[in-house]
Design brief:
single chain, about 260 residues, alpha/beta, Nucleotidyltransferase, domain 5, 8 helices
Length: about 260
């Protein structure tokens, strides 16, 4: 049934048509599900785009406790990661690519945290006290995996967390591009881990000002996309796993919009 969008962040009919079959069914037994899942997801998207606390959710959306409970349940059982993976494959196929990528790009982004607590540290290079978002993306800039950790963790050590988790889930991956911060022993470690090639793309010593680096711009563009979501302007979450779920949810929103536009064209 068609629904009017109350907020710009609401799911369109085309987006919901694509997403509805992917929603986990209600658990058997107990009280039947009465909440409308489209409205629950609209609540999650409102928080993501608006950057508001859960308790400030508008009253014409489901109660914030209900929306938050579903968000956390899906974080714990891996639903957000599964949705990201399914939608990523659909976007790749729609773009004429193989469902799974053979190449990707790796980088981290340091962001400030708030008084909520949880793991944090000081990134001396970026002069940021907070956390790092370490992401691996495909050549379209679509998220393969994210790990959030204290900003004090060195890039080479953070990369190991990402790549160890990615190894079982990226069967076609062969090459990964990264910047000079990942040079050194990590190259041999990556080859031993999964027989991947870690290629370092360095900035020329003669370059002045902003320079687009081949292959490296893909992951920078992804960070730019994430910057559209105010909830991600800082790391507002107490738990790093919740921070990761927020990023997966944001990427799902981005990919749903892309698929809906492709379908309409």
């Amino acid at each position: 049934m068609s629904q009017q969008q109350a907020y710009p962040s609401d799911l369109t009919d085309a987006e919901w048509e694509r997403l509805a079959p992917l929603i986990p069914p209600a658990k058997p037994g107990g009280r039947p599900r009465t909440v409308e899942m489209r409205a629950v997801l609209n609540g999650v998207r409102y928080v993501l785009r608006g950057g508001i606390p859960w308790r400030m959710m508008p009253r014409d959306l489901p109660p914030w406790e209900t929306v938050y409970a579903y968000f956390r349940r899906w974080q714990r059982d891996g639903t957000w990661e599964d949705l990201n993976a399914t939608l990523r494959r659909a976007v790749r196929v729609a773009a004429g690519r193989q469902p799974e990528p053979s190449a990707g790009s790796l980088d981290s982004q340091s962001v400030k945290t708030t008084e909520r607590g949880g793991p944090r540290g000081y990134d001396a290079g970026k002069k940021v006290n907070g956390r790092k978002r370490h992401i691996l993306v495909d050549t379209l800039g679509l998220l393969l995996l994210v790990v959030v950790h204290a900003a004090s963790v060195q890039d080479r050590d953070g990369a190991k967390l990402v790549l160890e988790a990615a190894a079982p889930t990226c069967p076609r991956l062969r090459k990964i591009w990264a910047d000079g911060g990942y040079a050194g022993q990590l190259i041999a470690w990556v080859a031993a881990l999964a027989n991947w090639v870690l290629e370092i793309v360095k900035r020329s010593d003669d370059a002045r000002g902003f320079v687009v680096l081949p292959k490296r711009w893909m992951v920078e563009r992804t960070f730019g996309w994430l910057g559209r979501y105010r909830r991600l302007s800082k790391d507002y979450e107490a738990l790093t796993e919740v921070s990761e779920a927020m990023i997966y949810a944001a990427m799902c929103q981005l990919m749903l919009r892309r698929l809906a536009r492709k379908q309409a064209s």
